[in-house]
Amino acid sequence: MKTLGILGGMSPESTVSYYLNINRAINSALGSNASAKLLMSSVNFADIVECQKSNNWQKAGEILAHEAKLLESIGAEGILIGTNTMHKVADAVQNAVSIPLLHILDVVAERIKAQGLHKVALLGTHYTMADNFYVDGLRERGIEPIVPDDEAKLEIHRIIFDELCTGKILPESKDFYLKTIENLTALGAEGVILGCTEIGLLINQSDSTLPFFDTATLHSEMAVDFILEK
After folding, report:
1. Residue closest to 89 by CA, chosen among 116, 58, 123, 46
2. Segments in the chain below pLDDT 70
3. What is the model's pLDDT at position 33?
4. 10 Å Cβ neighbour count for 221?
5. Which candidate in 128, 196, 197, 217 is catalytic?
6. How does 21-52 read in b/e, with b if 16+ C-beta sit within 10 Å?
7. DSSP for residue 199
8. CA-to-CA distance for 123 and 158, rounded, in angstroms?
9. What percentage of residues in the chain have a pLDDT greater than 70?
10. What are the residues whose beta carbons fall under 8 Å from the beta carbon of 230, sequence distance 6 or more?
């Protein structure tokens, strides 16, 4: 079993889901009292949010790269960034270490193509929906994302940071997300990427007839395969 280093705390709510999903899957695979060999650096999310708001992605990359190097130095054999948005600095993290980075877009694109889909709705933070790093990353992997209009982007982003990241689950916010999915379906979406690791706290597959691709769940499954050396 390999040791995985997790860059977490962005937000704590999603980091909890990673930890539980990975350990439950390892226990299911190995039985008895087996659990994953994990090392974690849980950063101060406020520092990362400040970097995002000030568009200081270089500093954000330096923070995560520093933590990744620490994890490698104490035995991590791979690194996972437990958030979609901060994959914007994935190259800075990977360049700082000699161990592999488990990139979230690799597993998301793989699972979408496995279902024979090409065009999918993308929900996430404003950075994820509007910045090229995620949209272009999907296109490079053969997936065409459809994003909401500017007004909807802002509200989706607000709900993530003001509510989901602090553990608030509100029915009116769920309704807004589902209405947005309806609008994107009308534009040709064949599935939905839950492109923020907190969104799965608000909506799930039972809420829609379109296939959902919960990035936190898929990334956790990728982590399990790495730990079990599959």
Report:
1. 58
2. none
3. 97
4. 15
5. 196
6. bbbebbeeeeeeeeebebbbbebebeebbebb
7. G
8. 12
9. 100
10. none
Transcribe 42-82 into DSSP letters: E--HHHHHHHHHTT-HHHHHHHHHHHHHHHHHTT-SEEEES
Among candidate residues 83, 85, 125, 217, the one labeled active-site is 83
- Architecture of the structural domain at 4-103+217-228: 3-Layer(aba) Sandwich (3.40)
Question: Rounded to 5 degrees, what are φ and ψ at 118?
Answer: -130, -40
Q: Please identify which residue in the block is written with the tokens 């990362």.
A: 48
What per-residue confidence (pLDDT) applies to 203?
96
Q: Determine whether 209 is an active site residue.
A: no
- Number of alpha carbons in the 13 Å side-chain half-sphere of residue 215: 32
Query: Is 118-210 the same fold as 4-103+217-228?
Result: yes
| Neighbouring-strand partners of residue 120 | 145
- Examine the residue annotation and report whether 83 is marked as an active-site residue of this protein: yes
Cα distance between residue 59 and residue 102, in whole Å: 21
- What's CA 104's distance to the chain center, in Å? 6
CB atoms within 10 A of CB 195: 29
Q: Where are the domains of the chain?
A: 4-103+217-228, 118-210
Q: Which CATH architecture has domain 118-210?
A: 3-Layer(aba) Sandwich (3.40)
Report pLDDT digits (tens) over 84-118: 999 999 999 999 999 999 999 999 999 999 999 99
In 3-state terms, what secondary structure has residue 167? coil
